[in-house]
Amino acid sequence: MAEIFTLSTSQAKQCIDITTRVREIVRKSGVRDGLCHVMVLHATAALAVNENADPNIGVDLLAALDRAIPDHAGWLHDRIDNNAQAHIKAAILGSSEIIPIADGDFLLGTWQGIMLIELDGPRSPRRVAVTIIPAP
Q: How far apart are CA 69 and CA 85, in angstroms?
């Protein structure tokens, strides 16, 4: 089973918790055990599993990325559309995550959630594909 959902981002860089949205798709699938593959369908956004109880984690993550990969640092791609840093950060973070499903729900740690990381916003729509793979 595969489903695509969309969302809009409101800032140039932001982290958005999409755990609830993805969990609804898992529950709707009826799969009790298996895997959930989540992928953002864009080259300037990423996904991560990380803490979702404190929104400052997302702020800190974006700040750390900006320190490591600054905007307009002589990137060649900036000559084309001025967003090379977003592509580089997205490539390093990755566009997908695989989360185990057990007893009809995610197998995540207490503080873990799924974050969409906007790196070149605001954008509308951002598309996220969710594929549910049942256990044999």
A: 6
Summarised one tens digit per residue, pLDDT across range 35-74 is 999 999 999 999 999 999 999 999 999 999 999 999 999 9
CA–CA dist 59, 57 (Å, integer) = 5
Query: Which residues on neighbouring strands pair with residue 35, listed in sequence order?
Result: 100, 133
SS3 (DSSP) at 70:
coil
Closest CA to 136 of 1, 62, 33: 33
Closest alpha carbon to 15 in 64, 48, 39: 48
Phi, psi (rounded to 5 degrees) for 19: -55, -50
Domains parsed from the chain with CATH numbers:
2-134 (2.60.120.460)
Count the neighbouring beta carbons within 10 Å of the beta carbon of residue 101: 22
Task: Judge whether 45 and 85 are in contact, CB under 8 Å.
Answer: no
